[in-house]
Known about the structure:
Layout: H1 2-12, H2 24-45, E1 51-52, E2 63-64
Antiparallel strand pairs: 1-2
Amino acid sequence: VIACYRGIVIHRTGFEIRTGQYDVLEIARLSSHLHDILVRIILKMVGYDGEYQPTTITGTASESLGWVTSDTCASLLGYQP
Length: 81
């Protein structure tokens, strides 16, 4: 999915949302998840090892940078199980 959407953004200059060809909510969930991954990478690069507010969790949450594992429920990442 990421490779497909990347290709659309890079080679077609964006999504034609009006056509209904793409699920806007899926794009938003994926964007939120990728943003969260980027934030965690940057925080680790600068040596931060505390807790942070994940982008994918609505409301107040305090999680460690390593909170996402292979056992993490997809709903916590913004996806429907």
